[in-house]
Amino acid sequence: MVWKKIRSLTVALTLAASVAAFGAGSTAAARALAPAATGSAAIKPAPIKPAATSPAAASGAKVMMESYDSTTGLIGGDGWWTSAVALSTIMTYQQTTGDTSYSYAISGAFNANKGSNFENSYMDDTGWWGLVWVQAYDVTGDTDYLNMAETDAAYIHGYWDSTCGGGVWWSTAKSYKNAIPNELFLALTAALHNRVPGDTTYLGWANAEWNWFNGSGMINGSHLVNDGLSSSCQNNGGTVWTYNQGVVLAGLAELSRATGNSGLLSTAETLANASTAHFNQNGIVIEPCEPNCGSDGPSFKGVFVRGLRSLATAAGTTAYDGYLQAQANSIIANDTNSSGQLGLSWAGPFQDPTSGTQASAEAALVVALGAPAAPVGPITSGLAGKCVDDNHQGTANGTAIQLWTCNGSAAQQFTVNGNGSLSVLGKCVDVISGGTADGVKVQLYDCNGTGAQVWQAQSNGSLVNPQSGRCLDDPGSSTTDGTQLEIWDCNGGANQKWALP
Prior knowledge:
The chain is an alpha+beta fold and 501 residues long. It contains 15 helices and 15 strands. The strands form five sheets. A five-stranded antiparallel β-sheet has the order 3-7-8-9-10, with no helix packed on it. The longest helix has 18 residues, at 80-97. It is globular, with a radius of gyration of 23 Å. The two termini are 43 Å apart.
């Protein structure tokens, strides 16, 4: 568990015999290999359209922000990592509902604390803040936030070594390798790859992290994540906390988008199914520590349900909607007082309201609203008056994706999906046979989550298919209606510039 004082006592001796083998030199070398924040142009996500609003979620956010301290920039007192989670929750509220009332908290936290680069002796603390700045970039488009996330990823990577075969340490003391910092590192590095043009470093780190984590033994035979590893590098049988189940789901969703590997989403769904069944007391999530969860534990469940929503969005599934709605319904009915405070036990009775319980339950209220509505509309070309088009509004596999004069028809109404795909009339834009060579044509095909259907929007207007490393291209800069689009080496030409809806 993340309670710093408690867990320091319980894990201080784990892996102690191995620490001597890795001195400051190895850490310095790893740091030297980490990329600095470069300030280069970054991939700007498509604008997010809000889902439905909710009076309960709006009330929860208002009460939550009453604990914001403009001097420190923190929400909820002096809790460091829990303030990061709270800020992430308020940004998720903004993304989902469109309510920008609390956007001042983003710059407030950044400006008050950027001198430290949001780093401290715990890698998970740094990881939480790194993910906050990725999300802040998504919300604002300000690359200062993305650069900070890169700085944080490099810092964490400095504590990766070969003890237990890999993975990052929990803290600078190098006494414990456990789940949460590694899950956060997975999510952070995969997310950075999805936003930093031309990246290979973060993708390499993300793949290495998942390969190590998946084989580390921390995922037990019941598909649940235990707390960490023993001194002999075995699953330590530590408590199965909700947040350890949630962060890995978000990480796999980002890594699937980065690689086009839909099998990662299948793995995540297996983990999600196990955790929703495990943390289920009459349909409502309960944390193992309840009713005495200290200062950190109350924040865990909100992290879990947000990770579950991230997976559902990436996988395009509604399988968890009922579960998430049940949490919100119970919070409203059983865990809310007349002042709008939200307590520890989502099943009730109302008790022990803190900034952590408020942020956690607020997260549940927000994710129950569903994912933000995916942008829908024309994909316009850098060549004036031309749009991406589904030939004759076809729905058959193999229908050409072509250039056509913009006309507002259904054949030109594309959806920008959370998993990186572009869909129209129920089918996805697809590179034929997953080809990677110049000139491979682009077609319409059943949506399947493979790399042939993943597209990343670059800040220069190009659409990259990461599996091939090539861009969506109008061959020969043609302006002829019916020209079938293809992939080609990215060159920045007007025939490779596309404006998403």
